[in-house]
Specification:
By secondary structure, this protein is mainly alpha-helical. It is built from 12 helices and no strands.
Length: 198
């Protein structure tokens, strides 16, 4: 993981696949925005009741969307701001599917072709923003719900992290199944991490 042996051809194939199917398509970003309703809400609703989970997740999603994926601008409680910073520093919010799919989060694509990485970042911007909005809304809603039931600050952060990674998944190279970590596996299973997560 620390010294990836990514073949240039595999990086290019993954980048082209991402661009063709998702990166350049605004529809994929819009569809991605439904993940909180389809996956996160049922998980939170099962533990906290649907009305409360819907209300708290809806408020967090509204704040995140209104700030363009910068929910921290709306956080007034020091405890919530600290929780957000912890989740962000752990990579639960920023390391998104789009960056991993585009081979920007891991591998040597950034080092070998900075101009190409700027193009990929630009074309994947909408999908990346949608994913960040999803993750930070899910994380802050889960944190607030956990604190409301009496969880300690650290337990609530862990619950929020587990909720993010359990409903939006961890797309990093180290979390892929072993068969999907090599060059051939990354190409063949490029869009199968979501299925594995589900």
């Amino acid at each position: 993981i620390m010294a990836p042996k990514d073949a240039q051809l595999a990086n290019v194939a993954n980048s082209i696949g991402f661009l063709y199917y998702m990166g350049a398509s605004p529809a994929s970003a819009i569809v991605n925005m439904t993940q909180n309703a389809q996956v996160t809400l049922p998980a939170l609703g099962a533990q906290f009741g649907w009305p409360k989970a819907t209300r708290v997740l809806g408020a967090a999603l509204r704040d995140s969307m209104r700030t363009g994926g910068n929910i921290d601008r709306t956080l007034t409680l020091p405890e919530e701001r600290q929780a957000y910073n912890v989740l962000r520093s752990r990579g639960d919010i920023d390391k998104t599917q789009s960056h991993s799919l585009a081979a920007l989060a891991e591998g040597n694509q950034l080092q070998s072709h900075p101009a190409w990485s700027r193009v990929m970042t630009g074309l994947g911007w909408a999908f990346h923003k949608a994913e960040v909005i999803n993750r930070e809304a899910a994380g802050m809603a889960a944190f607030r719900l956990a604190r409301s039931r009496g969880d300690s600050f650290h337990d609530a952060i862990q619950f929020a992290s587990d909720t993010i990674n359990g409903t939006h998944f961890d797309y990093s190279a180290s979390n892929r199944p072993r068969l999907m970590q090599g060059n051939v596996g990354r190409i063949v299973g490029q869009f199968k991490n979501y299925s594995v997560g589900m």
